[in-house]
Amino acid sequence: MGNWYDPYMLLDDPVIVADARHRVLAVNPAYERASGFRCKDLTGKEAVYAKPKGLIPGTSASVCEHVERGQGWKGIVTCERADGELWNFSLTVTPVRAFGQVYYLAVCRDLEELRYQAISESYEQLFLLIAQLAETGDPSVQPHLDRVGRLSRSLAEWLGWPEARARWLGMASVLHDVGKLYIPREILFKPGPLTPAERRLVETHTTQGAELLTRFSENMAKIYGYNEALLMAREIAQCHHEHVDGSGYPKGLRGEEIPESARIVALADVTDALFSHRPYKIPWAASQVQRYLRTKSGRQFDPKMVRVLLDHWKEVEELYRLQPAIPTGIIGNG
Hints:
There is one protein chain. It contains 14 helices and 6 strands. It is of the alpha+beta class. It has a 6-stranded mixed beta sheet. The protein is elongated, with a radius of gyration of 22 Å. InterPro entries: Cyclic_di-GMP/3'3'-cGAMP_PDE, HD/PDEase_dom, HD_GYP_dom, PAS, PAS-like_dom_sf, PAS_fold. Residues 119-325 form the HD-GYP domain. Pfam families: HD_5, PAS.
C-alpha cells in the first residue's frame, strides 16, 4: 500500500511532505534537483520552512503559526541550496489531514531572477515611502534611512548573512521607526527634553509599529503572499530599542531573545545618529563614536556585532564620506 502523498512526488515543482512536528517524511525528485539535498539526508529532520536557520526566524515562525491553526501560508522566500548558492522561490504550505493525522504539504516554485529583482525593487520603494510618511516634517529622514539601510545590510554581510537576505534586511531596516506615525508631531519634534509621560508615549512607537506591520503583512499576504522583508521589518520595529543586558524596551529582552535583525539595525541606527546632526547635538567625530560603541558593547549592543563593525571601520567611514548629508570633516580622529 502506498502513501497518501505519493501522487505529489510526481509533480514537476519541488515538494516537501512533513509530519505534525514539521519533520520531513519525503521530498520529491524535483526538490532534490532544485535544492541539491537528497531525500535520505532530509528525512526525519526539520523541514526548511520551519527551521529558523532555513528561512529567517520571523518567516519560519509565521509559517508554523498559520499552518498549525489550519490555515495555508504563501510567500516569497530565500534559502541556501546544498552548494551554498541562494534559492529564491515562492513557497506554499498547506495543512493536510489524512488517516486521522495532520501533515504539511509544501510546494516550491522557482522565481526567475528578473521577476525576483522586480519584486525586491517594488517592496524597497514601498517601504521607503511608508517610512518617510512616518517622519513627515523631518528633512533629514531620507538620508538617515538610506544610511541605516546600507549600514545594516553591510553589517549583516560582514556577519556572514547571505547576500539576498542581507538585502532584505537593508530594505526592512527603513521601517524601524514606522510606529512614529502614531506619535503627535509636536512631541516627536519637540526641541526641548521630553516629560516622563511624553517619553512613555514616544516609546510606544515600537509596539505600534509592530502592530501596523502585522496588519500590513496580513493584508499584503492575501494578494501577494508573505514577504521575508516585511516579516523582518515587524520584528525590527518591535525590538530595535531592546538592549542585550535587558535594560531596553518594550519587553526588556536580553541577548539572543532579541531577533538578530533588530540587534543589527539597533547598532546601525545609533551609529548613524551619532554621526549625524540633530537639533540637540552636533555630529560626533569617528573616535568618539568608536569609544561610545565600545562602552555600550555587551550592555546596549551585541558585543560580536560591535566587534565586527569596528573591524570594518574603514568601510563605515567610506559610507559616510559618500553621504553629502554628513558635514565635511566629521570623519576623522577628532
